[in-house]
Amino acid sequence: MAFSRHTVGDQSPSERLCLYPDSGSLTRARNLVRGSHLDVLSPTRGSVTDPRFRCATSARRAFYVQVNYFRVARQPLRILATVNMGCEEEGRLLSLPTNATCNSSLPLRIEGLVKRFGQLNAVDGITLELRSGECLGLLGPNGAGKSTLIRSIVGRVIPDAGTILIFGAKADSTAARSTLGWVPQELALYPRLTCFENLRAFGRYYGLKGIVLEQAVARCLDWSTLTDRAHELVKNLSGGMKRRLNMAAGLIHQPKLVLMDEPTVGVDPQSRHHIFEMIEKLRDEGMSLIYTTHYMEEAERLCDRIAIVDHGKIIELGTNDDLVRNAFGTRSQVLARFGGSPDRVVPWVAAHGGQTTDGIALFTISHPVEIASLLEDSAKAGLELVDVSLRKPNLESVFLHLTGRELRD
Fold first, then answer.
1. Which residues contact 255 (CB under 8 A, 6 or more apart)?
2. Are residues 155 and 229 in the same domain?
3. Using one digit for the tens of pLDDT, what is the confidence trace for 121-165?
4. I need a labelling partner for 237 at 20 to 30 A (CA). Which of 62, 74, 288, 385 fits?
């Protein structure tokens, strides 16, 4: 039995416990590390029972020993080493568990990220940090760069410049990917398999097996409220059920960082509300989330902070209240609908500092008394007022103010 050197992420070199075929009994292992900061616990035959560990396939007849609270730069980490019985190769370090670097790094840090497709800058110098336990919303029109940003994080797109760190590790590293879960916008399910078989398959892709896999499948079926549909073929499920199963498949390995790319697309209001409850449960458990959406009400309800993305850049970032306050202060909005030809209405609205969206004129005023002057001017211009209302600005108001267009353009 011997120690060798190993570097964890960007931390200083640290000692790794390597166990050789002639290492002897567990008692001998404990005696070797006695008095040090290492603690060798009882091994488990076959597979590690803690589902937070992502275990690579070991050599034949291998045991596992957990090395608990291994300290690097004063941060507690958990690593695994294999005890190979009757094998000539050295025990090898397995991938870090999901909580391996949570105490030392942010869940996600992006600096100067750039991705070009020909002459198009899909992502143009984005810098972003995600805090632990935070749900960060990405809001932007189609083609703004949201999906390209998400795909860069998960490794589906290779950036042209910039860095992406997940819990301090590079995004393309094994340690980073083991902590990451992805729920794509497109359904990534096997339609001819049952819910149970789909989750079992995705669990095995993440290295789960045995009792750990069975527990993970049961947990995900319960979380997505699909336990009673466990043996139903996916092709026979409703759209909302498929969406919930799609989410469960992306989280079966209990990641600490999850990317959700428009998870409510194409579902009915009841299913959308159910998905909201699933996401809120994840937030309550302290999971860190990146959430892209086309729906303002989703971002307002679910997200701690919101990044508005347009033309590959983050043009504003903050809480919902901060975004509204920064854009409008204490001002209010007037919504007016006029009859007659848009050729007359739109130029008049623009001349008075407003915007026209779906036939509705939108003005920003400092005091409610300013409504009277707007109505008087519209009457002088010969416009027919059909309806008028006063409201406080919201997230949609901020979006239109910053981008000058509807979210679904």
1. 98, 178, 179, 180, 181, 287
2. yes
3. 999 999 999 999 999 999 988 888 898 999 999 988 999 999 999
4. 288
Which residue in 285, 335, 288, 249 sits closest to 108, CA to CA? 288
What residue type is assigned to position 261 of the chain? Answer: D
Full domain range(s) for residue 65: 2-84
Three-state SS for 191? coil
Query: Mean pLDDT over residues 23-50, rounded?
Result: 40
pLDDT band at 276 (very low <50, low <70, confident <90, very high): very high
Q: 320-328 and 395-403 are packed helices; what angle lies between their axes, rounded to 10 degrees?
A: 50
Cβ atoms of 217 and 226 closer than 8 Å: no
> Alpha-carbon distance 213 to 211, whole Å?
5
- Cα(202)–Cα(380) distance, integer angstroms: 66
Q: What is the pLDDT of residues 323-336, one digit of tens each?
A: 999 988 888 888 89
pLDDT of residue 12: 33
Q: How many domains in the chain?
A: 3
Give the 3-state secondary structure of 313-371: EEEEEECHHHHHHHHHCCCEEEEEEEECCHHHHHHHHHHCCCEEECCEEEEEECCCCHH
Looking at 323, 353, 379, the residue that finishes a domain is: 323
| Together in a domain, 360 and 219 | no
**pLDDT class of 288 with cuts at 50, 70, 90:** very high
Residue in this structure with the two tokens 């008095």, named with its chain if needed: 35
